[in-house]
Structures are given as C-alpha cells and as structure tokens.
Amino acid sequence: MRNTCSRCETNIYRIAYENNSQRRLNGFGWDYSASKSVVDIIRANNLSDRAKDKRALDLGCGDGRHIDYLRRLGFKVFGIDSCKEAIRLCRDRFRDDANVSLKLADLTVRDSISALGLFDLILDWSVLDHIRKKHQKAYLNNAFNALKHGGFFILSEFDRSYPGLFKGKNYRAKNGSYSCAFTINDLIKLLKPLELVDFKEGALEDEINNYRFNTVLMSIHNASYLSTNDQVN
Ligand SMILES: C[S@@+](CC[C@H](N)C(=O)[O-])C[C@H]1O[C@@H](n2cnc3c(N)ncnc32)[C@H](O)[C@@H]1O
After folding, report:
1. Which member of 38, 172, 198, 199 lies 3.0 to 4.6 Å from 166 by CB, making a disulfide possible if both were Cys?
2. How far is the CA of 194 from the centre of ligand 1 (A)?
3. Which is the CATH superfamily of the domain at 5-230?
C-alpha cells in the first residue's frame, strides 16, 4: 500500500505516530488512554460483563489505546488502520498477546474487512470524522457488514453543535487532512438502520485543541443492511 493515501490522509497520521510519545505536544490531541465516553458507555450498558471470548473490532486503531482497553475487558480484539506506523506501534505493543490481531488496510475500500468474520462490538473513535463524505457510506457498509446481529457499534466523532469547532464550519480540509463533525442526530441518520441504544453529548475529549465529541452506542435488531444501491465504490 502507498504510504500517502488520498482517501485516508495517511500521511498526517504517519507524522503523528512516527513520534507518538510527542504526538500531543505536536497538536495531535487525542489521548493515550481510552476515551472516557467509550469507557462510560461500555460500563453503563454492561457490555464488559459479556466480553469474555467475544470479538471486538477497533476501526482506525491508531496506537492501540482502545485495543488495550478492550483486551483487558476480555475481548479478542482486531485492530485495523491504514497507517503503517500505527500498525507497527500496535504490533510492538501487543506482540505477546494472542488475543490481539492487526491489519493494515484502508477501511473505505470495499470488503477490506469482510474476511475477518463477524464482531460483537465495533468501535470507531474519531475515524468516520476524518473520512471524506464521498467515502463515508463505503466505510460504514464495511463496518455494518462486519457487525453480528445484536452486536454493538460505538462511534465517537467531532461534535458539530460546538460553535468553536472549525471556525463555525462543519468540516475542515487543511494541510492534507480532512475533518468533519456530526450532531447526535446526524449520526443516527447516517447509521440507519441501526438503532440508538445510548449516547453522550459534547464531551471534551481533546483538551489540547478543545475539541468536543459526540458518542453513540448503536445496535442492530431486525435491521437489514444498507441496500447495495447506497454503496459507494
Ligand atoms: C484521530 S485518529 C484516532 C485513532 C484511534 N481510534 C484512537 O482512538 O486513538 C484516526 C485514526 O484513523 C485512521 N484512519 C483514518 N482513515 C482511515 C481509513 N480510511 N482506513 C483505516 N484507518 C484510517 C488513522 O490512521 C488514525 O490512526
């Protein structure tokens, strides 16, 4: 895979993860430990009680902070990222853990995860909000198709209601990176036919840049997946 990918802005992440211990000082403000909103939602909905031997997928896993959290809960965790440096960090970090598997892949490419089987829990912490609109459906289809019936999908994305974000706009394209933001309702609409189970609104999860996040816990009940007509190739 090329190291600079127009779909997934890999180059920006290469810069972040090449120097991961200095990452936050360099303005890449997401934390080194698991997101509080993710931890709270997992606890509040007793998802950790059912973790033993269940399969979790961390989309855009970065340096593996959520892989670490989920494996400690008992999940068998799969982490995928399009950035070589992120996967390299995770391979080092989890090399002795047989319950962690990793894959380098661009998640907007159709079937990039279809060979991995189905998952009980899928997590996306600030990945969808870095995917350009024209690729979002393809990305979400990949995730939906990997979710078990009755499985859970947690997404935590930039909060569009927060007026300070991106100077009042709902997206920003700058220096080769793309970011966009969502309200809780935007996420619910985008994730149909999944149903909302729980949410946390406007949590300050990047204190360096003062970015707030909306987190939703969605589930499939009797849903049929997005129709093939909706898929973007
Ligand atoms: C803001 S970081 C968040 C990292 C991680 N989820 C966390 O909570 O620390 C976004 C991550 O998504 C990854 N990413 C962005 N676009 C991607 C794509 N199309 N396919 C796979 N990974 C992608 C980046 O490489 C980066 O690691």
Report:
1. 172
2. 22
3. Vaccinia Virus protein VP39 (3.40.50.150)
pLDDT band at residue 11 under the 50/70/90 scheme: confident
Average pLDDT over residues 205-231: 72
Task: Express each pLDDT in 129-164 by its tens digit.
Answer: 999 999 999 999 999 999 999 999 999 999 998 776
The answer to whether the beta carbons of residues 198 and 217 sit under 8 Å apart is: yes
Distance 209 CA to ligand 1 centre (A): 17
Residue to mutate, 66, 127, 133, 177, ligand 1, most ligand atoms under 8 Å from C-beta: 127
> Ligand 1, atom 10: nearest CA belongs to which residue?
127
Handedness of CA 22, 90, 136, 175 (dihedral sign): positive
The burial of 59, by beta-carbon neighbours within 10 Å (0-12 exposed, 13-18 middle, 19 or more buried), is given as buried
Ligand 1: distance of its center to the CA of 222 in Å? 30
Q: Is the pLDDT of residue 83 over 60?
A: yes
108 lines ligand 1 (CB under 6 A): yes
| 3-state SS assignment for residue 195 | strand
